[in-house]
Design a protein that fits this description.
Blueprint: H1 2-17, H2 21-24, E1 31-37, H3 55-63, E2 65-71, H4 77-86, H5 114-119, E3 124-128, E4 148-151, E5 163-165, E6 168-171, H6 179-193, E7 199-204, H7 225-247, E8 254-260, H8 282-285, E9 289-292, E10 301-308, H9 312-320, H10 335-338, E11 350-354, E12 357-363, E13 366-373, E14 389-399, H11 415-429, H12 434-450
Length: 466
Amino acid sequence: MGVNGTRRAFLRSAALGTMGLSVRAQSRPPNIILIYADDLGYGDLSCYGSNISTPNLDRMAQDGTRFTHFYSASSVCSPARAALLTGRYSNRFDIPRVMGPEDTTGLPGSETTIAHMLKSAGYSTMCVGKWHLGAGPGFLPTRRGFDEYYGIPYSHDMWPRPLIHNGEVLERPARLDNLTQRYTQVALEFIGRSRNSPFFLYMPHAAPHIPLAASPGFVGKSMQGVYGDMVQEMDWSVGRILETLKENGLDSNTLVMFSSDNGPWYQGSPGRLRGRKGDSYEGGFRVPFIARFPGSIPPGQVTQSMATTMDILPTVARLSGAALPQNPVDGVDIWPLLASEQGEVSREVFLYFNDVYLQAARLGPWKLHTARYNVPMFTPVEPQRGRRNLPLPRPELYNVVSDPGEAYDRAERNPAVMAEIQAAMDRVIRTFPAGIVHAYEETMKRQVEDTPADALPVEKVPSLTP
């Protein structure tokens, strides 16, 4: 690829060859805590511009790094969680859509999760919260690398909503008005009893997914309705975890990360972004991400560098010394970004899947939309009737750095940019299973037949990649 290819190779080499001195100096591998919100919008934390007060997450951002261009690998629950835990697009292993209690499958045993990877490196592992990757006994977290599980196996708007500890049903249906409190208490107990050896705590909250419910101590506290109350209670939970780390002398040897599975659903805010949960617009995919690791991640950093939830697995592998999974991962090691050693890392084109369909892709600051559903994924009445993935007769191109609201289509003036992204999409999609490739080819075939010729002069723009 000429200059761009050389630059990518250099960045990849640099990323593998560098590491924060403070991390190397630790007497044991760092503890890893990953806190994951459910349907929290990009604009729902005060450090991202919200009117909802989130002092603990704001302080966590001040103590570490906050990303403004961080992406989930899906705009809906199950695929997002599958990609997070494996470092791979979920369409590589047949989890393209939201799973329900009636599903008899789940995250395949052929996939290696972050928990598997860290357990093999001597970590204690626990999942506290929403799983949503298979409700059958063979698919629960304790069969996917976690030593212990406490939570609900799918979304808490699905019935019968059992609260499970390992394989035992504790409550059916689970009460929601104190769920965040119970999740937090179980997480704190795990930290306390694991303090003498490295541990991994994965905490996928039920909040602020509907149905909305906050504990009595938080009802009305936010002045932003029950949704805001739930966000504030989740923020309280983050504060309790950070306090417990300090109380146990673990603060300087623990990487704590916070993010969301996708954008907001009926309530919540995508900030300045267009779209919501279920969309391939930025509001469906771009989510908050904050990382804190005192002494290893410099405080007060805000980065516009792009990163994704799939990057967490290879980054954690580096910090823990664990071997990467045998299956090739789609994520990249972003420790150089977290440690402020580099301003960017090399990565492939990022793909926006909606169900089995590839609808958009981002490379550098540019995002190309090639297809879209004819009706939104979530509509009040019969959401699936007549819903079809259709190619855009005029593919749309947005600079999502300067135009985060995807308001100004610049496709007609940038054919070279479009061609480069399209070529990257074509190259990467060929590495997916045949069904995904077929869906893509059928969409593109219809698009080529209908795409009009360019009508405006070409803009002079910088190269897509560094």
